[in-house]
Each structure stands twice: as structure tokens, then as C-alpha cells.
Specification:
By secondary structure, the chain is an all-alpha fold. The chain has helices spanning 7-17, 25-39, 48-73, 78-83, 85-115, 121-131, 141-170, 177-206, 220-231, 240-278. Among the domains are: 139-238, no CATH class; 247-278. The chain is built from 10 helices and no strands. Solcar repeats lie at residues 1-72, 83-165, 174-264. InterPro entries: MCP, MCP_dom_sf, MCP_transmembrane.
Length: 279
Amino acid sequence: MTGKYSYTKRILYAIVFFSNTPYTWRGAVVFVQNSVSREGWIALWRGNSATMARIIPYAAIQFTAHEQWKRLLGVDTPHTAQEAPFRHLIAGSLAGVTSQSATYPLDLARARMAVADYRSLRAVFVRILREEGAVTLYRGYGATVLGVIPYAGVSFFTYDSLKHWHLDYAGTAPHGFTNVLFGGIAGALGQTSSYPLDIVRRRMQTAKRAPDGTYPYPAILPTLAHIYRTEGWRAFVKGLSINWIKGPIAVGISFATYDQIKTTLREIALTFSSLRENL
């Protein structure tokens, strides 16, 4: 598996998270057009294997954890979820913390690959362990957890709430494009609620260690102060507009796909159970 990121992805990543250049939609579109003309459309998906290596276990753990946390907190039905909205919100946050904690080194490796040339994910881990030590694999973890608490909590809470309201008013459970739409709304709200901490997380993950062993972004508060002092408050929402497209699409498809697969598997299980009873 090759995890090398394209030049286009690395530069876009740097523009959004690190550059002092003012971010504009027009500039982003022109940049992508120029990159495609130089490298071709396939370049926009180069390095996707590295993203999949992280997102597959992350999503699997998150959805599984969400179901378990809802059950443990007693909000695993539409009625109980509506009666205890705070516990419902907490269930989503705990699911995000669980999955992020289990896969964080992969997230850090993916961030490093976006700003530097590495042949594979393995090369990232080998270099980090050799040059910076195992503890570096969890640099930025605190900012990530603080960010994933509102992100996952708001996303799951919004998505489930919209489905429950649809069931109440329409009399049927939503499906198909409606679930994608609800997931998109949830993703947009979740992304917005946690975006400033996402900026901090990326800065801490990709910071290069100085010769004396220190980092330019040692902790959350100093990083927040440094960004605000050198770049102003707009730096904390830089690139958010483009994430309002990417995030909602990704979350919408993810939530809708999960629901469809869960429904299909439940129907298959019920069918087999009925067949066994009739034999």
C-alpha cells in the first residue's frame, strides 16, 4: 500500500492550516484546476489509501461504541433519547472519544503524510519512533479529544434527533437521501462546533521538533495564544467554508450507509430466524 500524498493535497493542506495567505473560494478552485491540469484527475485521489487505513477502523469503532454507549446510558430508543437529550449527547461524545483514542496514531501519521513526503504509513511510524520516540504518536491528543467531544456529540445527537422528529411527524423512519441530508446537517454542525480545536490539533501533530528537543506548539493553550497573536482570530475558522462541503458529504454518506447496512443485516437476521422457527 502506498500512502504518498500528492503535491496538490500537501499544498492545499498547508494553505488551510498553516499559511498566512488569505483563504478564498476562488483561490482554492483555481489552485485545484491548475493542479488537475498538471497532474490529472487521478492525483486528487492519490494517497487515499492512507486515509482509508485510518478511517475504516475509526468508523467501525465509533459506530459500534455509539450503540454500546447508548445502551449503557439508557438512550437506545427514540423515546428514551428524547426524554434524556443530555445523556443522548454524551453517548455521541463518548463514542468519538473511544474511536479517536483507539486510532489516534493513525490520525497523526496521516497528518504528517499530508505535509511531508513519506513512502508509506510504515515509514511515518518508523521515522517518528526512531527520531522522536513513541510518546510523539500521541502529540496533540488532548486537543483532539477536546475537539471530538463536541464534534461527535453534536453530530450523533443531531442526526438521531432529526430521524426521531421525522418519525414523529411523518410516521415512518427516514431512509435513502433523507438520511444523507440529515447526516450532512449533523456533519456541518459538528464540524463548526469543533473547528478551532481542529486547527490546534493539526498544528501540534505536524510541528517539527527543534534540535533541543522542544516543539513550537508544546500544548493547547500556548498554541491557541500563538495562533491568535500571530494570525488573529480568523485563523481559527480558516478553511471552514470548504469543510462545510467536504464534512457534510462525508458524514452524510457515512451515517446513511451505516443505517442502511444495519437495517439490511437486521432484516437478514430476522429472515433466518423465521426460517429456523418454521423448520
